[in-house]
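User: Could you check the structure of this?
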Amino acid sequence: MKPWLTDIPDQLALAKILAGASFSCGERIGLIVSDNAVEYMLVAYVEAHKRLVGKTITKSDWENKKRRFESLLDYVISQCSGILQYHDDLLHFHEIRNSLYHTGKPMSVRKEKVEEHVELARNVFTELFGIALTPADIEVNVSQIHSALVRGTRSISAAVSFEKRNGLVRFSTDAELNNPDAICLALYGFGMEMLRAPTFDELRQSMEASGVSLTKPILSSRLYDLRRKGYVRNGDRSLTAAGRKYVQRNFLLPA
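Assistant: Sure, the predicted structure tokens are below.
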């Protein structure tokens, strides 16, 4: 599954976890999260999956349609008739979501209602992207997210440390790194410390400060490889969600 698609089953799993949690706003936040997953997948279908903007719809028209959920849904249905069967249910749940999100009253819904919407969203996902997303797949994500929450946040101090130095970010680790791993760590640290993506020169100099010296052509080539792998974004030099997970899984120890 492409990195930009993994966000959807993660959100649906999180919605189920929230709906089953023993606190007052769990069901309400769960439905908001699952509805956000639906809106995200509708936009992703047009912009990332089919890349229709500038082809079958102008950029200005698309921006207008995205502003209202119903017009967004109608346009996607015009391109993927398979989700027409879900039109009324999607609108119904979105109206509930709006009531929960915008009201100042402590409104909520039943857990079963959230799970019904997650099931609806799962079916829409399969229709849009041609990828079977089964209830078992969602449960795997539920287990993974639950385990991550139980373990708590991860600490970079045990395996890797980062420090700002003269506008750069230096990392230190005892782990044996190949060049792509070193680039991922440098990008991760820069994002953590500077809250932005580095320029090409900032990345190269940050790596040199960390003891990893690469020529510009080699660094460019390794960045290209990481983009193809889905770890670095195409638009800048920041890690994707998959890239961050890779760093966390392989180099960051539980707190």
